[in-house]
Design a protein that fits this description.
The chain is α/β, with parallel strands linked by helices. Helix content is 38%, strand content 16%. The longest helix is centred in the last third of the chain and has 24 residues, at 370-393.
């Protein structure tokens, strides 16, 4: 279990911030604004947050009337306000009546080109101070450098390798994103060595890897001392993924198969699923794949075996394998009757992007029959039950959304994920842990990292929806108060308004923010 020092964080200077100067131009075409310049050094590099109620994300009970001392952006002391006086010359912020929690961590996102003035700043401005990007490209590495240099406001990025999949992959080359296909153990090992050289923080494994390629990735990852995470491949039992050292398993599709009394039979059916290697469209490929997989998933749900599930969950817990349910994207594709017609946070994304969602969803799910729709609803409810059972069994759940798919706005969507986890029956303190302490361990965030804090107006343990009631944010040691946050959000909105669609119109717009193909509709 992480200490409070690990959770609340400690590093990066308060005085070298990454905020847009007041009055600066907020955006260029396609959202390239919101580049920022460092602020002048403050008179003091010491910040005292006094009289706060502190929730550390790992314990259900709040610590009332506490003072936190940050020096040079690092959390250096904390204690009862009656005993811990602010140092002379410190900037003092009275947080009487406020609640301080660790900065939130979003563990499954997909960011994209053309959104520099939008995606990176939205995360910290919504209290999300660290993210794990699940399809690494040079873009995210460039953003990380700018954020570290103080020229871009954004979260701490933990960046995957390009997707490593078996041939033919569910993804085609139409997205213009790096993709590595490996057909055997030799090419799988070479892929691990390659992505480590290229600077990936972890290896991203995918759905169509062969057992031989997967085993080679696991072995080579250990040899190269680089973690691997991602999908549980169709050909690999989930318990084997856990014992192989996979750090996290994304989504809940494979979970249905792994908890079925007919798993062997269903996996034989999966082995017969075919993807046309000549199909140039990613959308077409994974739509075809899921049309073939859907009957198998339905049969897996119908043959759910509670005893088998408990044995699997025990194995996941024993091996420290985290599960990232991504209920947000499951909900948007499986409960389409609850999709909103509009939302306040949509103004922070380009209109051309938001306007592409309904037609994209119609193309994805419009062909469902009434029977399909009823089945998908049942499957979603079953997923919620699985999440609750995993929690009770001690499986470490991690909050992630698959932001990058439609109807998910960076930062805002994580708060929705927390609500869905609560709806599944997870207690509020455990939901908070899924977005703070557990992902801090999963992402191996360093103990001496910048202090990342979220200051709330109301108690999130009373209602997890209160994580949206943001008073202030400490991002990489810099205190963003309500006024500054409002100004910066306005800059993001302006960047979105000035953004122009990519060449190719609506079809291209639908491809600009890919999520995981595993969440294609049935």
């Amino acid at each position: 279990m992480p200490t409070r020092r690990q959770v609340l964080g400690t590093t990066a200077a308060l005085t070298a911030t990454a905020l847009v100067p007041a009055g600066a131009a907020a955006a260029e075409s396609r959202g390239t604004a919101a580049r920022t310049a460092p602020r002048p050094a403050a008179p003091s590099d010491t910040l005292a947050l006094t009289h706060a109620t502190v929730l550390d994300g790992a314990h259900p009970h709040p610590q009332q009337d506490r003072t936190l001392i940050l020096r040079g952006g690092r959390l250096v002391r904390s204690g009862p306000s009656a005993q811990l006086r602010p140092p002379r010359g410190a900037r003092v912020v009275d947080l009487t009546g406020k609640y301080v929690v660790p900065g939130l961590i979003e563990s499954h996102v997909h960011t994209s080109d053309g959104q520099e003035g939008i995606h990176p700043p939205l995360f910290p401005l919504t209290g999300v101070t660290s993210v794990r990007d699940m399809w690494g490209t040079p873009l995210q590495h460039s953003w990380r450098e700018k954020i570290a240099a103080g020229t871009l406001l954004g979260p701490r990025f933990v960046i995957a390798s390009p997707i490593i999949d078996g041939p033919p992959s569910i993804w085609a080359r139409d997205l213009g994103l790096p993709l590595i296909e490996v057909a055997d153990a030799k090419s799988a090992r070479a892929a691990v060595r390659r992505v480590k050289r290229e600077g990936a923080d972890f290896v991203k494994v995918y759905s169509r890897l062969s057992p031989q390629a997967y085993a080679a990735i696991a072995d080579e990852s250990r040899a190269q001392r680089i973690p691997f995470a991602g999908h549980c491949p169709d050909t690999v039992p989930m318990a084997r993924a856990a014992t192989s050292g996979q750090r996290s398993i994304e989504h809940l599709h494979a979970m249905l198969l792994a908890t079925s009394s007919r798993e062997r039979e269903i996996r034989e059916g999966l082995a017969k699923v075919r993807i046309d290697p000549n199909d140039p469209s990613s959308m077409s490929r994974y739509r075809s794949w899921f049309r073939q997989v859907h009957p198998l998933e339905w049969e897996a749900m119908r043959s759910y075996d509670k005893g088998r599930a408990r044995r699997l969950f025990d194995a996941l817990a024993e091996n420290g394998t985290r599960v990232v349910p991504t209920l947000t994207v499951h909900h948007s594709l499986e409960r389409t009757d609850e999709l909103p017609a509009s939302a306040e946070e949509w103004k922070y994304l380009p209109a051309w992007q938001v306007q592409s969602w309904p037609s994209t969803w119609e193309a994805l799910v419009g062909s469902r029959t009434p029977q399909d729709t009823a089945r998908v609803r049942e499957i979603y409810e079953h997923r919620l039950r699985l999440v609750a059972e995993m929690h009770r069994a001690g499986v470490r759940l991690v909050a992630g959304t698959d932001t990058g798919t439609g109807y998910a706005v960076p930062g805002f969507s994580l708060h929705g994920e927390l609500r869905l986890l609560a709806e599944a029956g997870i207690p509020a303190h455990s939901v908070l842990e899924a977005a703070t302490t557990t992902p801090a361990e999963l992402l191996r965030l360093p103990e001496d990292r910048p202090a990342d804090l979220l200051v709330l107006d109301t108690d999130p343990l009373a209602d997890i929806a209160h994580t949206r009631r943001i008073h202030a944010v400490v991002n990489a040691g810099h205190y963003i108060d309500a006024h500054e946050r409002t100004r910066l959000l306005a800059a993001v909105q302006k960047a979105a308004e000035n953004s122009t669609p990519p060449a190719g119109g609506a079809q291209a717009a639908a491809r600009t923010t890919p999520g995981c193909a595993c969440n294609a509709p049935h």
